[in-house]
Amino acid sequence: MHSLSRYPEEACALIVGCGDKAEEIVLAPNIAENPTRFFEIDPSARIHTEKKCRQSGQSIIGVFHSHPDGEAKPSNADANMVIERNFIWLIASLNGADEFHMGAFLPFQNGAGFTPVSLKIEEK
Ligand SMILES: [Zn+2]
């Protein structure tokens, strides 16, 4: 999980998989103007990942980002960024560089906000 840490900046990634099953986390550059407080996935990384998905039969099923010294739950800024309502939001909190928590959320189908979903990690 240390590869997901860009502490003190927010790390971000695309979650690739099938259905609701995440199979791969593809790290992407955070191009936000203020990457210690916000994240914005580089659109060219997204296009590249979509192309690869077309070949592998997978799809982008969600987004990951980290909250340095924050909580493993969506912020108000995150709620304003929701475009795809079927995307899983995986959020990691990092305290210092080594305490790591992770939460998974789905945007409400109507209106702003998220509902927590359970996260099951399977060994490969
Ligand atoms: Zn956030």
Can you characterise this structure?
This protein is of the alpha+beta class and 124 residues long. It has one domain (2-117): Cytidine Deaminase, domain 2 (3-Layer(aba) Sandwich), CATH 3.40.140. The chain has 2 helices and 6 strands; from the N terminus they run ββαβαβββ. The chain has helices at 43-56, 76-80, and strands spanning 12-18, 21-28, 59-68, 88-95, 99-107, 114-117. It starts with 11 loop residues before the first strand and ends in a 7-residue tail after the last strand. The mean pLDDT is 90. The protein binds zinc ion. Zinc ion is lined by residues 65, 67, 75, 78. Residues 65, 67, 75, 78 line the site of zinc ion.
* Annotated CATH topology: Cytidine Deaminase, domain 2
Number of strands: 6
Instruction: Count helical runs.
Output: 2
Based on Cα principal axes, name the global outline: globular
> What is the total domain count?
1
Largest sheet: 6 strands, mixed
Bound molecules: zinc ion
Distance between the first and last residues' Cα = 15 Å
The CATH homologous superfamily is named: Cytidine Deaminase, domain 2
Q: What fraction of residues sit in β-strands?
A: 35-45%
Helix content: 10-25%
Averaged pLDDT: 90
